[in-house]
Amino acid sequence: MEKDRPKIGVGAIIKKDGKILFGKRKNAHGDGTWSFPGGHLEFGESVEDCAKRETEEETGLRINNFKKTIFTEDIFEKEDKHYITLYAIAEISEGEPIVAEPEKCEEWRWFSWDNPPQPLFIPIENLLKDNFNPFE
User: Fold this and answer.
1) Inside any domain, residue 1
2) Which range of residues forms the domain containing residue 24?
3) How many domains, in total, are found in the chain?
4) pTM (predicted TM-score)
5) Following CA atoms 65, 33, 118, 56 in sequence, which dihedral angle do they give, to the nearest 10 degrees?
6) Which distant-in-sequence residues (6+ apart) come within 8 Å of 44 by Cβ?
7) Residue 4 — very low, low, confident or very high, per pLDDT cuts 50/70/90?
8) Which CATH number does the domain housing residue 120 bear?
9) Helical (H) or strand (E) element with 86
10) CA 103, CA 85: separation in Å to the nearest integer?
11) What does the alpha-carbon distance between residue 60 and residue 48 come to, in Å, rounded to a whole number?
């Protein structure tokens, strides 16, 4: 049987005061790992609109000042999933992060890019392997 095609994920790299917003995932692939706000790209949706939608749904934040950046190729062997993850850097235009989807995220916290929380979600690990720095 033919495998499904890779899915497209979007991650919002939100910067504030020299730090990045990370959330601790739960009840999904990557359970217990730290990741950015984000999710699946919907049909007809732009990367920017997806980042805005997912960020607001997950954190209550409104974001702006977008910059499309890098992508990662992410294989989740244990879950038998394959993603291409697209990233957009953004800033907060309104609000403070809240846990708006407690069934999906345990907490949101700000971390230095040089000292991220552990363990990281596979796409974030792949960003680090590519020596990506959202502050450059």
Assistant:
1) no
2) 7-129
3) 1
4) 0.94
5) 20
6) none
7) confident
8) 3.90.79.10
9) strand 81-94
10) 22
11) 16
